[in-house]
Specification:
The protein folds into two domains: about 5-30 and about 175-490, Aminopeptidase (3-Layer(aba) Sandwich), CATH 3.40.630; about 40-165, Leucine Aminopeptidase, subunit E, domain 1. The protein is built from 17 helices and 20 strands. It has about 500 residues and is α/β, with parallel strands linked by helices.
């Protein structure tokens, strides 16, 4: 249940009221409930074939073709380089078929650019690919069709792929919609994606799938023993929140997801530079990932007891902002000395992880755009994964390899825990020497995960800095298909 107070009553309690513009939805997110219309369930009579070719076998293939096809491919310089496209005309100048260079059939984004680059119309894949490769190609095609259009109309037309028999189009659509939602949430500017709007996105998702959603906000966080979430978010006129979604039969195995929902990160009193702030709308990318994964789980009806926890805040600067040197008491009772107010993500996560662990879930995952150190170590496209359970880690890595959705396991190196020692509290929120920052951040979170709970923490970029097939520049889901593949293999039918 969620309660709403009148502005006057809020002021009477000494709380900061959100302006009406922050509470009212302006326009729908472009992909939250969108049906992926780049895919068709059966081949239309006018559909034209797409023939994928690998460079190494191209010369041999060319020798088997007609003189007309061979001359055309040579005249346009097509050599089946990965990502290259050749439109082959028929005898009367019509488009007869499409040749596309691919690395291999197991590249999920082999056809990712075609929905936008081919002429409008219907196409089908003419290749002896396995059912799994056909399924993967259909998802890659759909993900390439994504555009963020909330603030401007898109004039682009789409080419449509007629999926092959045996492709589970419903599953492809569920996954594409979830990833669209992740991208939409991250791409939305902070003016329209503050804690209230993030909570509304979860509430809409819960309503769609019959989940129960509870939102604790403002000083209710103090009454609910979520004090650090309140401390980090109290400086903003957008009230901080803890969003709690629960779905599924209570007798099923418990799976808990926690996502960092820092809707904008100024750095707090340890304020960021202008350049450092420019992309901080994506600092709720962890929350977007957790929401997207919850979407996949519920849409596929996995037999689990799902709990989704989103600590949603703006890390702002005002007269009541928390300070470097403050000592905050967490939900778990651990006292935390604030070394740096720009290490706020792990702070809001610690209360949410503690809450999630109180149910003794079988599995717990958290997703965070947590550290620049992880990007220095692994670059922007490879999420860091920290895990306290070898069997879980091996399963996730195997799923990542199978889905071509990479993650890299990093060590929870216990000797570095001493870097987080405090002289005045139980722990500091950030090591002072700046070394091993992704590891020390993960070790901080580990303090709030119950012993015996299998847990994986993902430190990710959640952003494409350049456009590639199937992955347009902007917000991105990273490692999400891998985690869902693991969960589907563990719990699915």
């Amino acid at each position: 249940m969620k309660s709403f107070a009148l502005d006057g009553a809020v002021r009477g309690l000494g709380l900061q009221a959100e302006p009406a513009s922050a509470r009212l939805a302006t326009s729908p997110l472009t992909g939250v409930t969108a049906v992926v219309d780049a895919l068709l369930p059966e081949r239309s009579k006018d559909a034209r074939p797409i023939e994928p070719l690998v460079k190494e076998a191209f010369s041999e293939w060319l020798e088997t073709q007609s003189d007309r096809t061979r001359r055309w491919a040579q005249s346009v310089g097509f050599k089946a380089e990965a990502g290259s496209i050749c439109l082959v005309p028929g005898e009367h100048g019509e488009l007869e078929r499409v040749l596309v260079g691919v690395k291999s059939s197991d590249d999920p984004f082999a056809l990712g650019a075609l929905s936008r680059e081919l002429p409008e119309g219907d196409y089908y894949l003419d290749a002896p690919w396995s059912g799994e490769s056909q399924q993967s190609a259909a998802l890659g095609w759909a993900l390439g069709a994504y555009r963020y259009t909330r603030y401007r109309d898109s004039k682009a037309t789409l080419a449509r792929l007629c999926v092959a028999d045996g492709v589970d189009l419903e599953s492809v659509n569920h996954q594409a919609q979830a990833i669209y939602q992740v991208r939409d949430l991250i791409n939305t500017p902070p003016e329209d994606m503050m804690p209230g709007q993030l909570a509304s996105a979860v509430e809409a998702l819960g309503q769609r799938f019959g989940a129960r959603v509870n939102v604790v906000e403002g000083d209710g966080l103090l009454a609910g023993n979520l004090p650090i979430i309140h401390a980090v978010g109290r400086a903003s006129h957008h009230l901080p929140r803890l969003v709690d979604l629960q779905w599924g039969d209570a007798s099923n195995p418990k799976v808990t997801l926690v996502g960092k929902g820092v809707c904008f990160d100024s750095g707090g009193l340890d304020i960021k530079t202008a350049a450092g702030m420019r992309l901080m709308k994506k600092d709720m990318g962890g929350a977007a990932h957790a929401i997207g994964l919850a979407h996949m789980i519920m849409a596929h009806g996995l037999p689990v007891r799902l709990r989704l926890l989103i600590p949603a805040v703006e890390n702002a600067v005002s007269g009541n902002a928390y300070h470097p040197g403050d000592v905050l008491r967490s939900r778990k009772g651990i006292s935390v000395e604030i070394h740096n107010t720009d290490a706020e993500g792990r702070l809001v996560m610690c209360d949410a992880l503690t809450l999630g662990g109180e149910d003794a879930p079988e599995l717990m995952f958290d997703f965070s755009t947590l550290t620049g150190a992880a990007r220095v170590a692994l670059g922007p496209d490879l999420p860091a994964m920290f895990c306290n359970d070898d069997e879980l880690s091996e399963g996730l890595l195997a799923a990542a390899d199978e889905m071509k959705d990479p993650v890299w396991r990093m060590p929870l190196f216990d000797p570095y825990r001493e870097m987080l020692d405090s002289k005045v509290a139980d722990i500091v929120n950030a090591a002072s020497n700046g070394q091993g920052g992704a590891i020390t951040a993960a070790l901080f979170l580990k303090e709030f995960v119950p012993n015996g709970t299998a847990w994986a923490h993902f430190d990710l970029m959640a952003w494409n800095s350049r456009t590639r097939p199937g992955r347009p520049e902007g917000g991105e889901a990273m490692g999400l298909r891998a985690v869902f593949k693991y969960l589907h293999g563990r719990y699915g039918t």
